[in-house]
Amino acid sequence: MIDALPPPSPSLAPAAVSAALTTTSVKVTSSFRGARIVLYGAVFDPAARPSDVVVIVRGPDAPLRIARKTKVAGIWVNSRPVVFEGAPGFYMTASTRPLDQIAGFGPLRRLGAGIDHLAINAPFEQRVETRYGVRDVVVSRLGADYLDWRRAVVRLKQNAGLYAADDRGVTFVDRGLFKAEIDLPTAAPIGVYTAEIILFQNGQPVSRRLRGLTVEKVGLERALYLFAHERPWSYGLVSVVIALAAGWAASVAFRRN
Fold first, then answer.
1. Are the beta carbons of 95 and 167 closer than 8 angstroms?
2. pLDDT in the model for residue 84
3. Would you call 145 exposed, middle or buried from its count of C-beta atoms within 10 A (0-12, 13-18, 19+)?
4. Distances (CA, A) of 208 to 50, 53, 56, 164, 196
5. In the prediction, which pLDDT does 228 show?
6. How far apart are CA 56 and CA 170, in angstroms?
7. Which one, of 62, 103, 69, 100, lies nearest residue 83 by Cα?
């Protein structure tokens, strides 16, 4: 008698991640002192394999102009400024453990996960080529100073609370359920943000989700913001007229006294 082979077991579904923000809109008024947003999510994996979650929150990109103080003939002056583009106005990462323990250099660099892997380019000052067998090496006419300029950008953003990394910022609250907290500082830029949730297994990203977040001014602040950005010349003229009127009123008041 020949024993029949058991039917093959169905292949397990791939792991997936899902998440949602407690709010998708932050209103900025004159009394705005920052905001805390909570992200909740779940990992779905029939095989219950060890998993890590990385959350990357990125604010709107904006050009950043930076100069270095140099001493010329005993006088401190600003050097030729460098303009960085592609630098997010806000950037935060949160993860279940340190990023270098979750994945290697390659996956983190491709995903732009972590401040060290965040692409901050100086346009018209660089090219990308392969050197010493390593791809995507940035070569800049700034030379060795490029990294110094980049560190200055990161340092300024970190000091303003706009760049941050929390290697224990994602915590599992139950089997497969996790949460992360996103702190927006007072100086958080206005615009559309993206929250990217990445599931890692065995050092590789296996599932990704994107969620949107909007930071916008409301009330009088919004009206002034739109006026300043949509009609900058008119806004400038009105500001000058108000300043002149305030100065004239102050001078009249002091003369009377």
1. yes
2. 75
3. middle
4. 16, 10, 11, 21, 7
5. 59
6. 11
7. 62
Identify any residues that bridge with 43 across adjacent strands, giving them in sequence order.
Answer: 17
Q: Please say if the pLDDT value at position 200 is more than 80.
A: yes
Provide CB contacts within 8 A for 185, sequence distance 6+: 34, 160, 161, 162
Please report the sign of the dihedral spanned by the C-alpha atoms of residue 106, residue 115, residue 86, residue 222.
positive
Radius of gyration over every alpha carbon of the chain, rounded to an integer in angstroms: 25
pTM over 0.90: no
Question: How many CA atoms, within 13 angstroms, populate the side-chain half-sphere of residue 195?
Answer: 28
27: which 2 tokens? 């209103």
- Asked if the model's pLDDT at residue 230 lies above 90, the reply is no
Q: What residue has token string 């002149």?
A: 244
pLDDT exceeds cutoff 90 at 48: no
DSSP result, 207-234: EEEEEEEEEEE-HHHHHHHHHHHH-HHH
- 10 Å CB burial of residue 35 (0-12, 13-18, 19+) is middle
Q: So what's the pLDDT on residue 8?
A: 46
Please provide the average confidence, as pLDDT, over all residues in the chain. Answer: 78
The Cα 185–Cα 195 span in angstroms is: 16
What are the Cα distances from residue 236, in Å, to 63, 190, 223, 231?
Answer: 21, 20, 15, 9
**Average of pLDDT values for 137-144?**
57
Q: Which three-class secondary structure state does DSSP give residue 131?
A: strand
